[in-house]
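Side project, low priority. Logging it here so it doesn't get lost.
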Amino acid sequence: MKKLFMMFALSGIVLASCSKDDDDNNNNNNAPREVSMEEAASGTYSMSGLRANLNIEFEAPFLGKVDIPLNVQGSQFNGDVSFTSDKVIFDVAMVIDYEFTILGQPNSDTDDGSVTARMSYEILPNNRLRCFVQDGTDDEPFVFFNGLEIDDITFIVTERLNTGVKMRANVDTEIDFGGIIPGAPAGDGLPTVGQVFIDLKR
């Protein structure tokens, strides 16, 4: 009887051990896998997040220097972001919530918007992805929030998994806000600094 009991006990230990190994293997197989930038910059993604925190400066008649913080948040995304061997193509429609403060007065609104681009790209050290308009090609600039254009933007990739990519770009350029920001001169690039955040998922 003791031998029979010992056999059952040993069988239980072995089965429990195998079950734990299987669970560990399944958990490891299901865990997000960090991929290389070469792997990440391939195929098609959907956009799952877009926001921008920008600050604009310009000289206004009779007012002098005007400093405007602009915050943009996207939602309800529809469309794709695709990587080919040498191009990244944004074609995403969305709803955009934005707010800015001008002369102490807060303004906010919701509008239909999009992110479009057809840009060449290169993978740089330290998880960076530079997207740029290459002369002599059919490249088109990164356009978002009702026509704001950037023709050279470098994203710092903060996460790259088999399930998606998260990126942040530091903006320090001149952007034409005419027709978007009241009082901003149309046709002139206004000094703009801040950050743009984009999340992509498979």
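Brief comment: Residues 24 and 64 are 64 Å apart (CA to CA).
Revisit when time allows.
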